[in-house]
Amino acid sequence: xxxDEPDADPPPEDPWAIPPPPPGGRHPGTPPAAVPxxxxxxxxxxxPYDDExxxxxxxxxxxxxxxxxxxxxxxxxxxxxxPANEAPPSEPTVTDAPLPSGWPAYHLPVPRSEPNPGPPxxxxxxxTTVDPHATTFDLPPSATSPRSTPRPPxxxxxxxxxxxxxxLPYGGPPGVYDEPWRRETxxxxxxxxRLRPILxxxxxxxxxxxxxxxxxxxxxxxxxxxxxxxxxAKLAAATFTADPAAKSDGRDQELLGVASSGSIVVAVGxxxxxADYRGEFLVSTDGGRSFRLADVRTPDGAEPGYGDTPRxxxxxxxxxxxxxxxxTGTAVWTSxxxxxxxxQPDSTGAVFxxxxxxRVARTSGGFVAVGSxxxxxxxxxxxxxxxxxxxxxxxxxxxxxxxxxxxxxxxLSLIDVATRGNTVITYGxxxxxxxxxxxxxxxxxxxxxxxxxxxxxxxxxxxAGPGIAxxxxxxxxxxxxNASSKSEHYGVVMASADGSRWQPxxxxxxxxxGGLQRLTGSDRGLVAVIGGDKKVLLARSxxxxxxxxxxxxxxxxxxxxxxxxxxxxxxxxxxxxxxxxDTDGVLAVRDTLGQEIPxxxxxxxxxxxxxxxxxxxxxxxxxxVAVGGTNGDGAVWTSSDGTRWARASGTGEALARxxxxxxxxxxxxxxxxxxxxxxxxxxLVVTSSDGTSWHAADGFDAGPEGHVATYAATAGAxxxxxxxxxxxxxxxxxxxxxxxxKAGNGGDLAGKxxxxxxxxxxxxxPSGFVAVGGLSDPAVKDAPQGRPAVWTSADGHKWTLKQxxxxxxxxxxxxxxxxxxxxxxVATGTATTSSGRAAxxxxxxxxxxxxxxxxxxxxxxxxxxxxxxxxxVTAVTATPKGFVIAGAAGRPGREDVVLWTSADGHxxxxxxxxxxxxxxxxxxxxxxxxxxxxxxxxxxxxADHHGExxxxxxxxxx
Length: 958
Known about the structure:
The chain is an all-beta fold. It has two helices and 56 strands. The radius of gyration is 28 Å and the shape is elongated.
């Protein structure tokens, strides 16, 4: 058995080579994160869709229509193969042409067993109309995506709403991208909403702790320089500890595709948490025996932003490409060797529009990708599309007017592609209204995919009806069909040297054979994926003639197979597994005899991160309390000095309900502490008399419109107020003692489907309570309708609305935060402008009666990363010296902390603190601010494509 050469170097001079990244150290992160629901999603039609529950749309507005179920990467489901229901072929295509040289008809006999029908391949064909001319994709993971720490607001079209409790701001984690050979994962027990994000899991807290500890060591390499704005932040994964009894990492991961060439194997996917995801590339240079996290950069050597999901990958001979979803459309990555990847500019993926891409492969002249498009948007009128590229950086789209492919009886989608040199074959099918295959076909191109002609694949004895799997090896092309006899089901493999003339070459006989789902080939051999009873069977062959048992992968426990690759010494299966609590990645490796090759994916540095996020911090008498989440549950930490933090132990089941949950706001008051957040089904409200023992509060169930979210809380002389939203209306709840709660009233809270209202922050002052948020202004026609809004209340029960003007120079915007100092108020938010995002603020000197917009001076980096193009607010607080607004500036992947300070709320100065957790490669945000004596105490996040972890920053008051 030949061994692959580990660490084999790619060809030295390759036209597809990508310049190596510039010298200099990366600052890898490794931990967690978690985001409150105020992080708004991308515009309608740009996010992933969750098939269960209401839609989640841009920042602050309910939308209850069912979202489009179509997915640009989703292909129709393949029906169960049952020979008893197959009609004989209408036109027999068996040919008498001689068998190509080197392909004798021979199969390796194996023990037979009773017939077993194949498993279904996943997929939901239901869809609704979307704009066929749009140039954006529904996100992955899982999207979505969505960072688990508060993703800065990106105000969008107001006809939608912010995420519901427990739902990702972008409508859920990256969506499920079904493949013809996949099995649909069962729903979780109890009807809980199933999260569907991305990549390899860390199973258990012990591993998570190791990774977190490693992160501190690695990330501390950034150094901690002191600047005029105080010391650098501290990496705090070891400070804000996780739950030692946690049984899961609290994140959802999966692998979505895998490809191989020689000894190189690349698996792609990502990891999703409550609000965002990061795409990942796992690479093996020893034929699949071990993997590491590949490095990813932009063409200029910078850090890529979060939110991308690589989904299909292919390559060989020193040129690789991966395609996937992003917030802006289709993302494209290229690589010279599979080990280091370049995330190409958004413009590279624009040619793909909203088309579905199902496969990509390498040719001798570049790359070819196949898929389909739909004018209606629901793919009931699907027609094929092919994309060609010589280098992965420039793509040409060939529509069906050029391809001239067709099948009678239904829409045509291209499902698979195989290449040998510059010869390409592609497989497609037509489906009926129920998504059942009614006809299929194979087409061949001898010029790298530019021109195509239909090819007949024979129907040997025992085969009937549609259903073909295609592949290629160094010796030629192969195609497989399902067959049956009186005693068994089996597979018939045909071969062709050039893809035009085909003859039977071998047969696949395995115990429990249920249906051929895919053939994958490489220069090192072939592997067949076969459905079985609660498992996937693997068969290996060097050339398609003789097949042997290649092992099996269990699928009985919510496991799905997303992709398979073959090397000389191993078969690599990539996928995911849902155990009912979270989704974990699957990377199953089998040797040529079918024996397992142990690959400890949890030990791959940076491949999976434990959920560990701190979102808010507050100061009370003799106690500081920070809140967030770990391992998928809400979390509370306390400190007497702001330096040493202990995890609150008396939380019981209050912070461990089913589903993912986070605390996003906390406040002290006369009766004790109050913290709010969300979980997968409903608001999360917990109280404590001492900050250590916490109990769940009742009275926040969904109203008649079926949606309640709690975003922020405050305490004043009269009691406590929680704000958020209830259906289309702004929501408020009042309690004098933290024991019983009463919803607010007044017509100024009420919204409707065409003009909804929402609250995001609240403070208590001398005259009562002031809440801020936004509303959808029905008076605005043919333009974004989101506007800033302020509500005031003397008693926390009855509220009065005041709509403020649109921030200067913006398309729309609304408030996210508010702070108060005496009778002076500052409300802040992030607006959408013609060039990006911009932080804005309004001030009131009379307790919220009148407001004036104030100028936040420019801060951050120069050039394309300037805050002129991308600045946003993440936190605000009042201090003895005035006010501090925390935000960030720069493009995703290089977002650095910015502080705006003011003594009077009207005149502001900007600072750009430097150092660990505040600036540099990756994204840095401060998510919570409070005053501790003469210091400013902040919590936040630092993240790059290796992962993220919480930060803790203490500096003198500015």
